[in-house]
Amino acid sequence: MNLQENIKQQLAFMAPNTQQLDAQVSFSRLQADHRIPDEDIFIVAHQMQQNVPLHQHDFYEFIYVINGTVLNLIDDEAIYILPNSLFLMNLQSRHALKIVDSQAIIINIGLRKELFAAGVFAQFKAETNPVADFLRNKGHHSYLYYPLPHDLQINATINYLVGEYARNQFHSSYSLQAFVLLLLDQLQKEKKYSYYGVNQRCMKIISMINSDCQHASLSALAQKLNFNENYLSRYVKKYTGNTVSELIQGIRLKKSCSLLTETDLSIEKIAQQIGYASTSHFYRIFKANLNVTPETYRQNSRIQSN
């Protein structure tokens, strides 16, 4: 599978219940042209096949990972950006990117400071909310991390934003501005975010859950790590934006999506394998997070792969 096909497939799965991007859109151009356009809004996509040296931009940079994991070195910290996560950096950010997975694909959304000089964007920046405060550098945080693996609305907005940019021949438009404003508004309402991000210790915790999500729990993790349960809860929430339960649920849902797509296992077997004793409970969790039933997700994924 070439990069163009990979990007299109990944974007199709970002929001399984939303309209897919135009099949004729050339994502290879989005990836191939690394020049930064002289426009207030621009988007560049690339595969992490080489390290990116330390640098600083004069625009706000939003990194969205659609496949794989990327290591972002920023403020003397090593932060892992996971799939379907959004990493916001303001004008004070100096960072470098390191290869963790050479197949990782990232989308860079660039917003120039001139965009926020007047009109509705200036009004948004002047408000009091986590995103507006961050854009104004209130609190002196140079980055803001949003874990969004199953947030259908925000993933769909990013999907449409990228699609609009590509359909408009990789130039800004009124529709693109509308999608960016919608994204900012959705982010300021989102409760799951972190000023710290996923560090190496959090990656260890995530790896432990990944290796045995069937039996994962707060008490089991605390025992293995020799942590107090309350301390572990606070630590995970601080660095990932999720509670331990939400982290476990997200990993279980991700594994269930893979099993639904790649195997013919029954829904009951899948529910058991990922840690749900009750199939009906798994149905409720899946539908609440992905807005489709497991059967519909399996059918849609197979249609998209053909």
From TrEMBL:
Pfam families: AraC_binding (PF02311), HTH_18 (PF12833). The keyword Cell membrane does not apply. Keywords: DNA-binding, Transcription, Transcription regulation. SMART domains: HTH_ARAC (SM00342). GO terms for molecular function: DNA-binding transcription factor activity; sequence-specific DNA binding. The keyword Transcription regulation applies. InterPro entries: AraC-bd, Homeodomain-like_sf, HTH-like, HTH_AraC, HTH_AraC-typ_CS, RmlC-like_jellyroll, Tscrpt_reg_AraC-type_HTH. Residues 203-300 form the HTH araC/xylS-type domain. PANTHER family: ARAC-FAMILY TRANSCRIPTIONAL REGULATOR, HTH-TYPE TRANSCRIPTIONAL REGULATOR EXSA. This is HTH araC/xylS-type domain-containing protein. It comes from Lactobacillus selangorensis. The lineage of its organism: Bacteria, Bacillati, Bacillota, Bacilli, Lactobacillales.
